[in-house]
Amino acid sequence: MTTLDEARTEAATVAVAAGRGAGRLTGRRRSRGSGPLAVVVEHSVALALAVVFLAPFVIVLLTALMTDQQALSGQLWPHPFRWGNFGQVLARNDLLRYAFNTFLYAGLSTVGVLLSSIPAAYALSRIRWRGRGVAFVLVLATMMLPVQVTVVPLYVLFAKLHWIGTLAPLIVPNFLGDAFSIFLLRQFFLTIPEDYADAARVDGAGEWRILGSIVLPLARPAIAAVGLFSFLWAWNDFFGPLLYLSENRQNWTLSVALSQFRGLYHVQWNLTMAATVLFMLPAVFIFFAAQRAFVEGVTLTGVKG
Amino acid sequence: MPAVATTPAAAPAAPAAGSAAALARRRGRRRAARRRRLTVLVMLSPWLIGLTARFGYPLVSTAYLSLTHYDLLTPAQFVGLGNYRYMGRDPYFWPAVRNSLWLICIAVPCTVLFAFGVAQVLTRIRAGAGVFRTVFYLPTLVPPVAATLGFLLLLQPTGVVDRTLGWLHLPQPLWFDDPHYAKPALTLLAMWGTGSIMIIFLASLLDVPEVLYEAAEIDGANAWHKMRYVTLPAISPVILFAVVTGVIDGLQYFSQGYVAALVAGGQEAGAGAGTSLGYPQNSTLFYPIWLYWQGFQYFNMGYASALAVVLFGVALVVVLALLGTSKRWVHTAGGFR
What are the phi and psi torsion angles at A74 (to 5°)? Predict the structure, then answer.
């Protein structure tokens, strides 16, 4: 168990470091001894990389605004701009229904993950009890298990419950704790000083009180990050919906619908890309609304010792 | 305070010497410990149920089903090691293994190195560092299905990439339609979406104390020395994290490969999903895709379970091996905090 303890203290110290780093993730390393030429080269490389990273977004968006013939011709600039593509793709193909299903899946999953993972992370970080180290190793182990390993019995189980074709097999498990979220929240909870909680304990506060009135307010950034990750994970998920929803088109999510789009509807590239843009818009919007929470959350994930 | 909780049974019956007050105190403490244990249990109960229902039971059940023929409709039929023996003769098993190995041996290192390189560039940027960081992170938010469709568009024969290559008088591969280029195309897609690892690298690179570089410079270190003896050891925990995560992701790689084959293959043949498996020529038939196909298209759930058991074994061995060797090259007790 000593190596585990080592790892744990290490994780905690790095968590603090990462927490500090997250606030100012901007370049600080002075390229010492390098003249203005090096600076120009470095910025040019970054600029070129930025162009490459952004190009797919731009091309997809431009194609979404083209006519069908133009999308096939390989021209870059839409002529004329067909804003109607978005309306057309929404009006046809039940896309709004699929968007609603995806929202339902992602929203309820997020609620479930937060409700089940916050207390678990608290018990794994702020209360001392025998077996805590083993429980944490189990969290890490389940986090590293490829999803396909357990998928056959789970499918059989859900088939016996008559849940195949409904959103239940996707949503319900999230109310039973999510390893990644528990891990991330635990790392953050460990960085909160014990003192407040000890003071509250002396005053006779129970663990639930301490969780609600001390830890939760302080951990708001981490909780926001976990909520965002859960929402996006479900929003983007393809394997689960493909597995459980394929046979019932009523309950398809956007991922499944879009994967079938071209073949099923014989839809052209321009309309496929219009649907693609609509699909990734919410994620990008959420990101810009909560960029800080994101960056802090991502750095917290990388702090395993 | 913690002593109470960690020694729940350490209250032997020796109250004779104690006064009534001490007895009451001890009883109160014991009650508090019991209450705390109950709290822990309640707080963990959803996760404990999940652990049993989502991992414990399925692992046991998979192991059992792997020894049977099972199609979900008729009762499972015990066949011993038949499913495992069939793997050797299964014409799709070895291509699937090879493709997944390719991912882990080529795509994962490419992606990790690329993320590291981009993070390095970001540490040196002064103007607009926040904007650059956002731009490099943005692709990770794109749903895998949407990203794959976008790359199918970019890499189609009349797409931007091949037109640019033609303009530069370079060869223009058919990417998702060419068995030699389908996996490299998927690797490009993975590199585009490498933002999370990149941010983690960036955070740890910025946390390497400047003092270490100054000391190295005094010792006459050049850029390579600084990278080899300062940067890499200091961020080695994060490298381990990136490699382990990358390998696990490689082992369960599904969505992008499945969608690329489905869309590119369906388009070519103009037929249903049946023709798209591993399109083109099994080059995108990854191990999890074959497992999915066996289990949920053919409903050979016994064989799919055997494939799952092998996947579990491989994941276990690889992760343990990585963690085992890490003792030699990961510096956890570095003096950086």
Answer: 85, 10
